[in-house]
Specification:
21 strands; alpha+beta; about 20% strand; 18 helices; BirA Bifunctional Protein, domain 2
C-alpha cells in the first residue's frame, strides 16, 4: 500500500465514523509563539481541546504536515526525518477510549493489513503522588481487541525505561509505563505542568520489526520504548481528561477529549515490514536517484539529502525564506546541509537539485496542490541559496588546504582546526574527514567534540557572557548560537568588531575608548567615547580601513600572557571588565608587535581576516553625552 493510499484510507475511515475532514494547517503556527514550526497535528487545535467550539463539529480528522527542527542532527539513520505527516483524529467532548482504541486497531490491522502479532501497546501506570489512577480501562479494551485476533495479551508493569531494560518484556504485549512515557500535556510531565493546564494519560502503539536485532548498547533487554530500532511508535491516543489545580493537585475536566496522532511515514514503513523509512514509496525514488547520480555513494548522505530537500520544499511553499534568523535559519541550514552532502561529499553534479525538486513536488501534487502553484518560486529560492553557499565553500576549501599543508603525512587535523572549518565555513566534520582522507591524514574527533561542547556553552551565555568586553547577545537575546551557521556569523562579526575599534582609533585618534558592545547573528553594535558626530568622510574612512584590514588576509592569533605584560604590549581592553591574572591577547597580524588590532579577548575568531567578508557601517548615532554608537553588518 502506498503512502498516499494510507493517507486517503485513513481520512475516509474516520469520515465514515462521523469526522469532518479538515485541511492541513501551515507549517508556520498561527498565534503560537511557543514554537517556530507546527510539529504535531494537535498544535493548531489546542483552543478546541480547551473547550472552544470548532466549526467542523466535535469530531475532526486530518493529515497535518509537520517539521521538528530538533531532529535535524538525528537525520541519517533509518527512521528520523525533519519533515513528516501526522495523521490525526479528535474528539472534543464526544467519544473516548471505548471507541478510539478499537478504531485505530481496526485501521491498522484491517485497512493497512498490519500483522497483529507485531503490534504492541503501552498504557499509563498511574501517579500515586497526584492520585491519578492506573489506566486499567485501556488495558481491558486492548486485551479484548487482541483476543479477537487470537492473541493472548498479558499486561506487564515496566514503569521506567531503566526498569524496562533490566526486566525485559517478560512475554507481555501491553506495558505500563509512568508519567515520563505515557502522559501527555504541552508542558510534559504532571510536575512540569502550570496551573489550569490540561493533560492526560495516553496509549501508544508500537510495531515490531523482527528483522532488527536488539542492540545491547541501549540496555540489557529490549522493550517497546527501547531506542535500538526494533520497536517503532506508529500512533498515540491521548485521553485528555485532567486539569492541574492551583495547589498542584489534579481534577477532571468538564470535557473529555481524544487527541490522536500517527506518523504516516512510519505506518507506511510498517506496512512494508521494513524498518528503513527511506524505503517507502515517496522517499525511495529520491534515494535511488541520488545513488545513481553520486560519484561516491553514501547511505547517510543519501538520507540527509532526501529529507532536507523535502523539508525545504514544504517550508518554502509555506512562505519561509532563507535567512540567519529563526525559521529562515533552519531553511538555510537544511538547504546548505543538503548541498554540502550532495555536491561536496558524494559528488552530485549538473541540474540535480532542480530536477529533484520537481520530482518531490510532483509526488505530492494531489495532496498538496499549492506546491505545484509555487514551483517556480521554490526552485528560485533553493537555487539562490545553493549559489550563495558555493561562494562560502570556496573560501573554506582554501582554508582546508592551508591546514592540510601544515599537517604531517599520516597525522591528524586538530579538533580546533576542524571546528574552525565548521564554525567559519560550515564544513561538517564528515566533509573534513573526506577531504583529509584524500590527502592521507585524519581528524581528531575527540578534541573536535570537546571544541563543539565548549563553544556550545559559550554561545549559551547570552547577553551576560563577555568576550573581552564584547557582549555576545545572540539573535537579540532570544535565541542562542546553538548551531553552526549562527556561530559562524557571530564569529565573523566578533573579529569585525576588533577591526572596527582599531580603525576608529586610527582615523579619530586614541581618545576613542570602548564603552560597550553587543554582537548578534545579524550585526555588531559598538559604543565608544568621542565628543562629536562623525562626518560622512570619517565614517567612510573607518569603513574603508576595516575592509583594508580584511583584504590583507591577516592571520588572527592569540598569545597567553600575564595581565601586566599584556597591557605593556599595547593591547586594548575594556576598563570595566575584570580579567584573570593570565589573559589571552587576540591580534590580527603576523606578529603581536606589528598587528593592526590587538585586544584582551576569549574568542571565538576567524583564522584569517579575509573570512570576515565585506564590512558595512549601517548607522552612526549618539548614545549619551560624549558617547557614540556604530552599528555594523557584514556581507559574504
Amino acid at each position: 500500500m502506498s503512502t498516499h493510499e494510507i493517507r486517503k484510507k485513513y481520512l475516509e475511515f474516520f469520515k465514515k465514523r462521523g469526522h469532518t475532514v479538515i485541511p492541513s494547517s501551515s507549517l508556520l503556527p498561527e498565534g503560537d509563539v511557543t514554537t517556530l514550526f507546527t510539529g504535531s497535528g494537535m498544535q493548531p487545535l489546542i483552543k478546541y481541546l480547551l473547550g472552544e467550539a470548532h466549526p467542523g463539529g466535535k469530531r475532526l480528522t486530518d493529515a497535518q504536515k509537520c517539521v521538528r527542527a530538533e531532529d535535524i542532527d538525528e537525520v541519517g539513520d533509518n527512521r528520523h526525518t525533519t519533515f513528516f505527516e501526522m495523521l490525526g483524529n479528535w474528539s472534543f467532548g464526544d467519544y473516548f477510549k471505548e471507541e478510539q482504541l478499537p478504531w485505530f486497531f481496526e485501521f491498522l490491522t484491517d485497512e493497512v493489513d498490519l500483522d497483529p502479532q507485531k503490534v504492541y501497546v503501552t498504557v499509563f501506570a498511574g501517579d500515586t503522588e497526584r492520585q491519578i489512577p492506573r489506566d486499567e480501562e485501556s488495558v481491558a479494551i486492548w486485551k479484548a481487541l487482541f483476543a479477537k485476533k487470537g492473541i493472548t495479551a498479558e499486561a506487564v508493569v515496566l514503569d521506567t525505561e531503566q526498569r524496562a531494560s533490566e526486566k525485559g518484556m517478560q512475554g507481555g504485549r501491553i506495558f505500563y509505563y509512568g508519567v515520563k512515557k505515557n502522559w501527555w500535556s504541552r508542558a510534559g510531565t504532571p510536575e512540569n505542568m502550570p496551573p489550569r493546564e490540561p493533560g492526560g494519560p495516553d496509549s501508544e502503539v508500537f510495531y515490531e520489526f523482527t528483522s532488527v536485532p536488539h542492540d545491547p548498547a541501549f540496555g540489557a533487554h529490549c522493550h517497546p520504548n527501547c531506542d535500538c530500532g526494533r520497536f517503532v511508535e506508529i500512533g498515540n491516543s491521548v485521553f485528555m481528561e485532567y486539569r492541574k489545580n492551583e495547589d498542584g493537585s489534579f481534577s477532571k475536566l468538564a470535557q473529555r477529549n481524544v487527541d490522536f496522532g500517527g506518523g504516516l511515514e512510519r505506518i507506511a514503513a510498517a506496512s512494508l515490514d521494513d524498518p528503513d523509512i527511506f524505503n517507502i514509496d515517496i522517499l525511495k525514488p529520491l534515494i535511488l536517484a541520488i545513488r545513481a547520480a553520486a560519484v561516491r555513494p553514501h547511505i547517510r548522505s543519501e538520507r540527509i539529502i532526501t529529507d532536507h530537500i523535502r523539508a525545504s520544499i514544504f517550508l518554502i511553499g509555506d512562505g519561509v525564506i532563507p535567512s540567519n534568523k529563526e525559521r529562515g535559519y533552519l531553511l538555510r541550514r537544511l538547504i546548505r546541509r543538503a548541498v554540502m552532502h550532495g555536491q561536496y561529499l558524494i559528488g552530485l553534479e549538473g541540474d540535480f537539485w532542480g530536477s529533484t525538486i520537481d520530482v518531490v513536488i510532483d509526488s505530492y501534487t494531489h495532496a498538496y496542490p499549492e506546491l505545484s502553484e509555487k514551483r517556480v518560486l521554490i526552485r528560485e529560492v533553493f537555487m539562490k541559496e545553493q549559489a550563495a553557499f558555493a561562494r562560502t565553500y570556496e573560501s573554506g576549501i582554501k582554508e582546508f588546504e592551508k591546514i592540510a599543508a601544515e599537517t604531517k603525512p599520516g597525522g591528524v587535523i586538530s579538533g580546533a582546526d576542524t571546528f574552525l572549518l565548521l564554525a567559519t565555513h560550515g564544513f561538517p566534520i564528515e566533509l573534513t574527514e573526506e577531504l583529509a582522507a584524500q590527502k592521507g591524514i585524519g581528524v581528531d574527533k575527540e578534541s573536535f567534540a570537546r571544541e563543539v561542547a565548549h563553544h556550545r556553552e559559550l554561545s549559551r551565555a547570552g547577553q551576560e557572557k563577555k568576550f573581552g568586553g564584547h557582549g555576545l547577545l545572540l539573535d537579540t537575546g532570544e535565541l542562542k548560537a546553538r548551531n553552526e551557521e549562527e556561530l559562524k556569523k557571530v564569529t565573523r562579526l566578533h573579529t569585525a568588531t576588533h577591526l572596527l575599534q582599531a580603525a576608529l582609533r586610527n582615523v579619530l585618534g586614541n581618545e576613542v575608548g570602548q564603552k560597550g558592545s553587543d554582537i548578534t547573528t545579524e550585526r555588531t553594535r559598538f559604543d565608544f567615547t568621542f565628543p562629536r558626530k562623525l562626518t560622512k568622510e570619517e565614517i567612510q574612512s573607518v569603513e574603508n580601513l576595516v575592509n583594508k584590514y580584511i583584504k590583507m588576509d591577516l592571520p588572527v592569533q592569540y598569545k597567553e600572557l600575564p595581565k601586566e605584560e599584556a597591557v605593556k604590549t599595547g593591547a586594548l581592553y575594556f576598563f570595566k571588565e575584570k580579567y584573570p591574572e593570565v589573559v589571552k591577547v587576540y591580534y590580527a597580524g603576523h606578529s603581536l608587535e606589528d598587528a593592526v588590532s590587538k585586544e584582551f579577548c576569549g574568542g571565538p575568531h576567524v583564522a584569517h581576516t579575509r573570512e570576515v567578508g565585506v564590512f558595512k557601517i549601517a548607522k552612526e548615532e549618539a548614545v549619551a553625552a560624549g558617547v557614540r554608537r556604530i552599528r555594523g553588518v557584514i556581507e559574504p
